[in-house]
Amino acid sequence: MHGASGDIACDEYHKYKDDVQLMEDTGLEAYRFSISWSRLIPNGRGAVNPKGLQYYNKLINELISHGIQPHVTLHHTDLPQALEDEYGGWVSRKIVKDFTAYADVCFRKFGDRISYWTTMNEANVFVLEGYDTGFLPPQRCSPPYGGNCSTGNSSTEPYMAAHHILLAHASAARLYKKRYQDKQHGVIGLNVFCYWFIPLTNSTEDKIATQRAKDFYLGWFVDPLVFGDYPQTMKKIVGSRLPSFTYAESSQVKGSFDFIGVNHYITMYVNDNPSGLNMEDRDVLADMAVQFTRIRNDTSIFEYPIAPWGLQGILEYIKQFYGNPPVYIHENGQRTRRNSTLEDWPRVKYLHGYIGSLLDALRYVCRPYINLTHDDVRVLS
Question: Can you spell out the DSSP letters for 211-241?
Fold first, then answer.
C-alpha cells in the first residue's frame, strides 16, 4: 500500500543485536529461527554465500553470548529457485540429496553451537498449502481445488512432496546421527502443525471422521517416523496416489527423530463429509472427507478462541498413540490486530490458559477431552 514493500520488514539482518538484547531484557532463554537455504546456498547446491554464513554465525554467537539457546529450523517454506526450476523442488526425489547436502553444511558450520535442529517447519501445512491449495510457495495446484496456479496437480503432488520431505528428513537425520551427534551432542526432529479435532456431534460418523482428520493431519508425517509407514486410513482412501516406502526407506524413516515439534493455535469441530470421495479426481481435503468448523468462545472473530484443553488433548494423544516421544511446542500464541495497545490482555489471557494447560499435562492430569462433543465444549468454554 502507498508504494510500500516487504523489502525491509523486521530487518533482523541489520538489527540482530538489538533484537537479541530485547530477548535478554524480556528474560527469554531460547530463540527459534530458520536458516534460509536460499541465503546460505543461493543456487541450492555448490558454493556457500559468505555473507549468509557470516550473518548466521554472528546471530548464533550473539544469542549464546546473552545466554539464549538457539533452536534452528532448516526449511521454512523457502527453497532456492534454481532447484524449483531444475526439477520441481519437493515433488522430485532429487531433493533428498540436495537437502542432505545443505543440512550437512549447516551441521558442519554451526553445529558446534546448535543443540536443537528441526528439519522442516509445519511439514503438513507446507504440502497442503504449497501443493494442494496453492496458497503458499511454490504455489503448485490444479483446478478445482487450488487457487490461481500456473502448474501442479493437487491430486498427487501433495503426497509426492510429503514423501520426499520424509525421505529428506530421514537422510539428514541419519547423517547427523552418524557424523555429528556424538561430537556436538544435539538432537534433531521434525515440526508439524496440529489442530486439535473434536467431533461436531456424538454420532459414530463424526467420531470416525475426527480420527480420520487426525490421521491425515498428524499421522501423515508422524506415523512414518514412529511406525515406518503411513496410516492405514490414508493407504485405503488414497490408494495408488500415496507413494509407498520400500523396506529400506521404511527402516530409515522409522525412528529418525529425537523429538516432534508441535505448532498449535486452535481447535476444530469435525463432521463427516463423504461427498468428496465420490469425485473422480480428488485432492487431500476431498480424501479426508470431513468438514471443519472453528470453535468459538468469548473472543472476537479476529482473535483465536481460547481453548487450552486442545493443546492438552494433542499432547495426551501423542503420548498415548506414539509412545510418549519428546515434544517441543514450537509455536503457540494469540494473534492481535495491527496497532494494538501495549495492554494486550487477550494475549495474556490466551498464554495464561495454554501454559496452565501444559502444566496440567505435565502433571498427568487426565481429563475426558479427547472425545468431547460440541455440547460438552460449549459448556467448558
Answer: HHHHIIIIIHHHHHHHHSS--HHHHHHHGGG
Q: What are phi and psi of 178, to 5 degrees?
A: -75, -40
Asked whether 242 and 311 are in contact (CB, 8 A), the reply is no
Residue 339, Ramachandran bin (φ over 0: left; ψ between -120 and 50: alpha; else beta): left
Quote the CA–CA distance of 143 and 188 in Å, as a whole number: 37
pLDDT tens for 270-323 read: 999 998 888 888 999 999 999 999 888 765 677 899 999 999 999 999 999 999
Q: Exactly one of 62, 122, 157, 316 is catalytic; which is it?
A: 122
Note if 129 is an active site residue: no
254 phi, psi to nearest 5 deg: -60, 125
Residues 191/121, Cβ–Cβ less than 8 Å: yes
CB 264 within 8 A of CB 191: no
Looking at residue 346, its amino acid is P
pLDDT at position 1 over 90: no
Judge: domain 12-198+210-264+297-380, CATH 3.20.20.80: yes
Q: What is the pTM of this model?
A: 0.92
Q: Is 122 a catalytic residue?
A: yes
Domain ranges in the chain? 12-198+210-264+297-380
Q: Which of 12, 86, 205, 331 is catalytic?
A: 331
Give the tens place of pLDDT for each residue, 91-105: 999 999 999 999 999
132 class by beta-carbon count within 10 Å (0-12 exposed, 13-18 middle, 19+ buried): buried
Distance CA 215, CA 242 (A): 14
* Residue matched to cell numbers 490486530: 337
Three cell numbers, residue 328: 517441543
CA distances from 20 to 6, 25, 113 (A): 22, 9, 16
* Close Cβ partners of 236 (under 8 Å, ≥ 6 residues apart): none
